[in-house]
Amino acid sequence: MKERIYVCHTFYHVYISCLKELALRNKDIEKADIVLSLMSTDFGGLKERLGVSGLFADILEYDEKPPSFFPELEKYRKNHGNILVHMIKRIIFTKKLGKAQIPFLPVDFRKYKSIYVFCDSDPIGYYLNYAKIPYHAVEDGLNCLVHFDAARFDNRGSFRIKAWMSARNLIFIQNGYGKYCIDMEVNDISAIELPCPKYIEKPREELVSSLDNNGKELLINIFIANMPSLMEKLSNKGDAPRVLILTEPLCDMETRKTLFTDIIDQHGQSNGKQAVIIIKPHPRDILNYQELFPEHIVLDGMFPMEILNFIPNLHFDRVVSVLTVPNAIKFAGEVLFLGKDFLDKYEDPLLHRQNEQISGKI
After folding, report:
1. Are 28 and 144 in the same domain?
2. CATH of the domain at 126
3. Which of 177, 207, 237 represents a domain boundary (last residue)?
4. How far is C-alpha 257 from the geometric centre of its chain's CA atoms?
């Protein structure tokens, strides 16, 4: 049996996996393997840089297939307006989606003592429950359940019955409700309005604060493909204040253009002075910000923004975020979190106020 394996769907997932392994680096413990799911993220050259780092024993790629890849499963996803018929079809869908992943798996997960899965809502979660393989779930993003409890939102209406069925592996519900999910790591249980009994608190700051300079340098080398280019863009030219805008794949593309144009116009100053605007695209945001804002500095989006914490002497006067939780940011004098009230101006609140819909507040 091998010790550990992490299944990652985003750069942030890989970042947390690296932090967890760095915390074990000086202990006499076997290195873990890591899996990069190719379903939703282009990881670019990350696999090669992870290999050079020596942090993991093996770096694997997983051609994970979404339900839409299997047209034969569509008939089980239709809502027939009858709860009994719907649940029977969902039971069948749950098993078939899990089984359908088998030809695409990069490794035999039964050979690991501990499996850590970020985003077990994706097909890997269905497979592990289909195969009856216990695993640990891990929070998708920092405090993400505070703003979007996907398990309860996706299963609103008869949630208790559905959770009971998931606990018996008849259907599958993510984020701690599956029978073979041992537990789910979250950053802060107290901030979650309706916590699941399987949630366990693992503050991310504890992992970050334990890093030494070698660990920080290793993380920079893993996630930054071209450090000289990044430092050139980040170099402080003149005495103008600097404002960092964190983008996200929000709304439709045209609305997104308007939204971030408005953010720059409204918040692109600091202490009454016009700032140098630096834009950090989200790794899954495909809007071409270089073309949209040629007058501003646009960074490579292919790294988690937390890595900026580890670049010596890096400082921004202000960082602006819409929904990305900014708690981990240490490189700014001011952090402006605009939140859902701001987003309400650009799209139907029902599209982003999921937790309010669960609680009946909207």
Report:
1. yes
2. 3.40.50
3. 207
4. 23
> pLDDT per residue over 217-261, tens digit each?
999 999 999 999 999 998 877 788 999 999 999 999 999 999 999
Alpha carbon distance 50, 34 (integer Å): 9
Mean pLDDT of the chain: 94
For 66, the token pair is: 């979404």
Mark whether 74 and 173 lie in a shared domain. yes
User: Quick one: how far is CA 164 from the chain centroid?
Assistant: 27
Question: Quick one: pLDDT at residue 248?
Answer: 94
Instruction: Write the CATH number for 318.
Output: 3.40.50.11110
Place of tokens 């392994």: 21
The closest alpha carbon to 242, from 269, 216, 213, belongs to: 269
Under a CB-based contact definition with an 8 Å cutoff, are residues 30 and 8 in contact?
A: no
Tell me: do 310 and 163 sit in the same domain.
no
C-beta separation of 111 from 1 below 8 A: yes
Question: pLDDT value at position 44?
Answer: 95
Q: Does one domain contain both 329 and 272? A: yes
Q: What are residue 89's DSSP bridge partners?
A: none
Q: Three-state SS across the chain?
A: CEEEEEEECCHHHHHHHHHHHHCCCCCCCCCCEEEEECCCCCCCCHHHHHHHHCCCCEEEEECCCCHHHCHHHHHHCCCCCCHHHHHHHHHHHHHHHHHHCHHHCCCCHHHEEEEEEECCCCHHHHHHHHCCCCEEEECCCCCHHHHCCHHHHHCCCCHHHHHHHHHCCCCCCCCCCCCCEEEEEECCHHHCCCCCCCEEECCHHHHHHCCCHHHHHHHHHHHCCCHHHHHHHHCCCCCCCEEEEECCCCCCHHHHHHHHHHHHHHHCEECCEECEEEEECCCCCCCCHHHHCCCCEECCCCCCHHHHHHCCCCCEEEEEECCCCCCCCCCEEEEEECHHHHHCCCCCHHHCCHHHHHHCCC
* pTM (two decimals): 0.95
